[in-house]
Fold this protein.
Amino acid sequence: MKSSTPDKAAKTDSTNLRQSLVGGAMVLTVAMIVTKVVGIVYAIPLKAVLDKSGVGIYAQAHGLYEIIYSLALAGFPTAISKIIVDFQRQGRYSDIKRLVKVTNFFFLALGLIGSLTLALLAGFYSEKIMDNPNITLSILVVAPSIIFSCLMSTHRGYHQGMRNMIPTAISQVIESIAKCIIGLSASYLTKAYFTDEYIRYSTVLGRSYNSFAEAYTDILSLSAAGAMVGVTLSILIGWLYLIIYRRTKGDNVSPDQLSMSPEAYTDRYLFRQILTIGLPITFAVIATQITSFIGNAIIQNRLITSLEKDISAVFASHSGWLEFMDISKKDAYGKIATDLFGCYSFGDAFFFLAPALCEPFRMSALPHVAESWLQKNRQQTEMHINLTLKFTSLISSPIGFGLASLATPIMHMVYAKRNTAEVAVGGPLLSVLATASVFLAIYATSNTILNAIGRHDIPVKLLLLGGLLNLVITYILVGIPSINIKGAPVGNVFGYILIAVLSLIFVYRNTHIDIDIFGSLIKPLIAGFVCALASYGTYTLILSCFYHLIRQRIATVIAIAVGAVIYIIAIGLMKVISKQELESIVKKPGLVRILSKLRIVR
């Protein structure tokens, strides 16, 4: 059966839309920056609406959701990309078109199974595992989004394999904006509506309560479910955009390429290829989510254990801030544990900032590393690997170490309208957790490289090993009353350091590529550490000498700016970036010449 697709494809030949490794990464980086800014705009008022208890409910519901969600947006899109790269190398463009049809049916079935599984697990997870029935509704509301996520995976994986990152980038921006607008509106209006119902009738959904404090938790659980509505609808909107894009722009395969292509493989063969490559990658990501899921359950239960052992020691470890959060020793242990977990969750958006900003380089690197590896071009493979690792370190180190040095001041600045006590509890936790984000970013990049060269099994084994270490440390430390929630981020640090180091070792063992450890990793990490020291020193000095003249938020901004300047100087002094690498990013020769004269580039 003929269609108009080839004509559309002629308008947008694949060779015209392909982007270089850095070019594709830049497209995704711009999108990532926009989505992160929108994410912060979303997270700050959302946390204000949900309060600490609502944040805890939202975070715990999101934990189960992310496990199922990972099935869609982890292994299988990567598998599609890698298969497409191989088919392009062989000139099998008929297979590329047929692959899309096969994956659409596969992902639809996977999405239906995932949504049903999430819905069925909602009650058991909430009541038996997390001991918090208020989570159930949020999980049920977000369950349908798995279907749309799966269907969207086909399109994103296809465009990534064709090295056209624009559709993925735009869909990410659309999705984040939709989630911000719909999620915030639904959460705020839900809370306002049921608060008004209680004021008028002393009921919520017709149920009577003895006091507003008793009803408030249920109101917040409904408000958290409203935020989850935003997640579901935003993914639906992002998927619809990708459908419209494909129908209007074509699939980047020209009629000439189709005419010269050999006969396509059978659906069964293509399906087997998807499973062979996709399942190990998916298991690796699922291992991360399961570890996080188990970790959250361990944190909640071990916090309750610590409270049962010595509640006074738990309260004393936070220097009186829990009392300022209106938490009493007479409260139920489960509620106290959820509130502490909510403070820990305040740092999540910051923790994932560094790995997320490195994601564009990983996504762009996968098809390039895969292609050069399949072509047995060692020089190109070495260049792509080292370049990706270097930019990962350059981006993650100042963000991760900088956050570690200024976690509490930054949280005070961002969450200015929140209870100061909640930030005082959450800030030190983020200081430890932020360090782990640097190693998570390095591991994720090494993971992408291993997937590109076909070693899909290694990341699973590493994640299981690192996750086990994380869980053991978390179990021990959180169960100690004097440490309690402060032990949660420590397990992450040791777990991610272990798998980051091991993943680099396995990249070398499987490629025998000369990885520039000093130039691509150690130098940027040193520069990031120097940046953190400069920021912390500046902030401390300003508060010590000019406390009555300069506000804390202004001091934080100045400290961040000084750290950024020192970081750039450190990069220049250590000659981290070469002139050729800069030219691949910056297309203005004048700027390159200026930076060369200033000896910022070598």
User: Anything to note?
Assistant: The CA atoms of residues 270 and 461 lie 26 Å apart. Confidence is low (pLDDT under 50) at residues 1-19.
